[in-house]
Write a structure and sequence with these properties.
- By secondary structure, the chain is an alpha/beta fold.
- It has two domains: 117 residues, Aspartate Aminotransferase, domain 1, CATH 3.90.1150; 242 residues, Type I PLP-dependent aspartate aminotransferase-like (Major domain) (Aspartate Aminotransferase, domain 2, 3-Layer(aba) Sandwich), CATH 3.40.640.
- The protein is 37% helix and 13% strand.
- The strands form three sheets. The chain has a seven-stranded mixed β-sheet, with helices on both faces. The chain has a three-stranded antiparallel β-sheet with strand order 9-10-12. A two-stranded parallel ribbon has the order 1-11.
- A hairpin with an 8-residue loop joins strand 9 and strand 10.
- It starts with a strand and ends with a helix.
C-alpha cells in the first residue's frame, strides 16, 4: 500500500470531521441565511460555532473571521481588497518576498500593473528572511507587507514575531499567508500586530473548498478591505454567496482538534522527520531550507533527478517535487530559484510531507529504491 507523503498539498480529513460534514449534508442541510424555520436556525448556529473555533486557533474574536473557499481566495481578498484604500490614501508600496505562494505573488503583480510599487525581501539558501531587511524597505507610503509563515515547498518558518516587532511603529497592514501553519504552528499567529491571516481547511484535516481570512481590528477599526464579488451581502458584505455550512462546520471542528492536539502532532511529526534525516544523511542528501516545520522535508540527493526518483518510489510513497498548484508546470521551482540553489539541486529536489496520521515512514524501502538511481 502506498504511503501518503504529500500533506503539504492536502491532508486527509479527520473521521469526526467527515462524519459531521456528512450529517450536515444529508440531515441538517439548511441554509444559514434562512430565518423562518429551524433548519436555517441550526445552520446559522453551526456557522457561528465554527467561527468561534477558527478564531480560537489564533486568539482572535469570532467577529474577525470571514469564511472563504480557501487560502487562495483569502490571499486575493486580503491583497486586492486594499486596492481602493491604497489609491485613495496614496499608499501604493508593497513589501513581499519572491518565495511566496503564487496566490500571493500574482495578486501583487496585478496591483503592480495598477501602478503600485513592489519591493522584494531577498532570501538566501536558508530560505529565511532577515527582519532587518523588511525594516530597510519600509516607507511612509507602504500599504502592505505580505509574508508567508511556513513555505509550502521547503517548510522554512519565517520570523513572524520579529517582523511584527519591526512593524510596531508602522501603519502598514501585515498579511500572513498561514496555509501551512494554521492549526499546526499557530503560536506566532496570535500576535495582535498581524492584521490579516489566510487559512485553508484542507491543510488542517478539513475538507477542500473552505478557508478563512482573519481580519484583526486595530483598536475598533477593521482593515479597510473592499469585496471582490457582489451579490447577497454574506460575510459582512465581503464575501457574498450562500455559505457552505457543512464545510464550514467541518473546518471549525478540525480547528478545535488542532488547537487541542497540535503539540502532540508536532512531536510525532518531528520524530518521523528526524528518522528520515538520519537515513538520508547516509546518502549524502542536501536539505533545501533551514528552520523548517516538523511536517515537511525538502531534499536533494546528488546525481538523482526528482522525476526519476518519483518513478522508482511509485507504489511505495506519494511524494512531490514542488507545489501542487504548479505541478503541471515544468519550469524550475520559483522558491528554490529565489533561494539561489543550483540547477542540479533544484532538478533533484523532492518534497516529503506528512501528518500525525502517518504512523511510520518506509525508510528501508526508500533507501533501496533511491540507491538504484545512483
Amino acid at each position: 500500500m502506498t504511503i501518503y507523503l504529500d500533506s503539504n498539498a492536502t491532508t486527509p480529513v479527520l473521521k469526526p470531521v467527515a462524519d459531521l460534514v456528512y450529517k450536515l449534508m444529508v440531515e441538517e442541510y439548511g441554509n444559514s441565511g434562512s430565518r423562518t424555520h429551524e433548519f436555517g436556525t441550526k445552520a446559522k448556529k453551526n456557522v457561528e460555532k465554527a467561527r468561534t473555533q477558527v478564531a480560537s486557533v489564533v486568539d482572535a474574536d469570532k467577529s474577525e473571521v470571514i469564511f472563504t473557499s480557501g487560502a487562495t481566495e483569502s490571499n486575493n481578498l486580503a491583497i486586492l481588497g486594499l486596492l481602493e484604500h491604497g489609491l485613495t490614501h496614496n499608499k501604493k508600496h508593497i513589501i513581499t518576498t519572491r518565495i511566496e505562494h503564487k496566490a500571493v505573488l500574482e495578486p501583487i503583480e496585478h496591483l503592480a500593473k495598477k501602478g503600485f510599487e513592489v519591493s522584494y525581501v531577498e532570501v538566501n539558501e536558508s530560505g529565511v528572511l532577515n527582519p532587518s531587511d523588511v525594516e530597510k524597505l519600509l516607507r511612509e507610503d507602504t500599504l502592505l507587507v505580505s509574508i508567508m509563515h511556513v513555505n509550502n515547498e521547503t517548510g522554512s518558518i519565517q520570523p513572524i514575531t520579529a517582523i511584527c516587532d519591526v512593524l510596531a511603529l508602522s501603519n502598514a497592514y501585515f498579511h500572513v499567508d498561514a496555509a501551512q501553519s494554521f492549526g499546526k504552528l499557530s503560536e506566532d499567529l496570535a500576535n495582535k500586530r498581524i492584521d490579516l491571516i489566510s487559512a485553508s481547511g484542507h491543510k488542517v484535516y478539513a475538507p477542500k473548498g473552505v478557508g478563512a481570512l482573519i481580519m484583526r481590528k486595530r483598536g475598533f477599526v477593521k482593515p479597510p478591505l473592499k469585496p471582490l464579488q457582489f451579490g447577497g451581502g454574506q460575510e459582512k458584505g465581503l464575501r457574498p454567496g450562500t455559505l457552505p455550512v457543512q464545510l464550514i462546520a467541518g473546518f471549525g471542528l478540525a480547528c478545535e482538534f488542532a488547537k487541542n492536539h497540535s503539540k502532540q502532532w508536532q512531536e510525532h511529526a518531528l520524530r518521523l522527520k528526524n528518522s528520515l534525516i538520519a537515513v538520508l544523511d547516509t546518502m549524502g542528501a542536501q536539505y533545501n531550507g533551514e528552520n523548517t516545520a516538523p511536517f515537511v522535508l525538502n531534499f536533494s540527493i546528488p546525481e538523482i533527478n526528482s522525476e526519476a526518483a518519483m518513478v522508482v518510489l511509485k507504489g511505495i510513497v506519494a511524494v512531490s517535487n514542488g507545489s501542487a498548484c504548479t505541478s503541471n508546470s515544468y519550469t524550475p521551482s520559483h522558491v528554490l530559484t529565489s533561494m539561489g540553489l543550483g540547477e542540479d539541486r533544484i532538478d533533484g529536489s523532492i518534497r516529503m510531507s506528512w501528518s500525525h496520521m502517518t504512523e511510520e515512514l518506509p525508510l528501508d524501502h526508500l533507501v533501496t529504491q533511491l540507491n538504484q538511481l545512483k
